[in-house]
Amino acid sequence: MSCNRQTRYYLLFLLAATALVATCAKVQPDVVTNEASGKQIQETPEPTIPPLQKEILDERSTKTDSPLGKFDFKNFTFPLPRGWQDIDSKEITLENGIRRMTEAKIGMSYVTTKYFDVTDDGEDEAFVILKVATGSITIPQIVYIFEWKEGKPELLWYFRTGDRADGGLKKLGVENGELVVELFGIDRYIFTQMETSKIVGDEQRLCCPTHFTRTRYKREGNGFVMQGDRLTYSLKDLDAEPVKNMNEIRLEEERGPKK
């Protein structure tokens, strides 16, 4: 094999590897010729991996006039959710944004902080997002909501999200005084602080979600309660109308027509 041919194959390999991690957009099958039979066949490339944390990591809502904007959450102690607690502690302390994972203790790392007025009192609250260290590429996260009270952050609520297409966190926001949470997946929502609901038939590749769900929550008592319909949007057809409460639709379909 000539040097030029070796160089060409090497460059093609680099281009293919780059494309594999660029985006999860739908690709058209390629038509290739089988050298043995001479017949043309279609080969569909594997879907590529999208930047699922793009909206969480952008610069929107990262500034505030509240004292929370100057507080150092990268060196702070947070409560751990049930099922994720250490044997000897229900809290975790970050140092410079990290608590390293060991065989005995869960790991955690700081992701970002967003600021919204979710209590409708004219003052922003801090939404601190931490990533649970799993030793793999999974991205479960915990969102902690703090208000500023008596000269320090006070925890209002916190909830855990899933992993990428399996209920992973897409976006946070506030509309009309209500917390808006977008999770990847079909009809995915926070139904307890520590779990995301999953309906039968929501089978997606973890890397490449095809839908996301938008839900709204209002502050009531010591927590937040879901308001209104759960809206599932298609990521393949952004102009399509959202589907309301898809879990109930699936259950009705499984039951069949009433007799």
Describe this protein's structure.
The chain is 12% helix and 37% strand. It has 259 residues and is mostly beta strands. It folds into two domains: 3-43, no CATH class; 54-255, no CATH class. The chain has a five-stranded antiparallel beta sheet, with no helix packed on it. The chain has a five-stranded antiparallel beta sheet with strand order 10-11-14-15-16. It has a two-stranded antiparallel ribbon with strand order 1-2. A hairpin with a 2-residue loop joins strand 14 and strand 15 (223-234). The radius of gyration is 23 Å and the shape is globular.
Keyphrases for this structure?
2 domains; disordered N terminus; 259 residues; mainly beta
Listing every helix as H and every strand as E from the N terminus to the C terminus, the arrangement reads HEEHEEEEEEEEEEEEEEH
Computed structural class: mainly beta
Taking the sheet with the most strands, its summary is:
5 strands, antiparallel
Measured on Cα atoms, how large is the radius of gyration?
Answer: 23 Å
How many DSSP E strands?
16
Shape summary: globular
User: Strand fraction band?
Assistant: 35-45%
Mean pLDDT reading: 80
What is the helical fraction, as a range of percent?
10-25%
Contiguous helical run count: 3
Q: What is the spatial order of strands in the main beta sheet?
A: 5-6-7-8-9
Poorly predicted segments: 1-32
Task: State the end-to-end distance.
Answer: 72 Å
Into how many domains do the coordinates divide?
A: 2
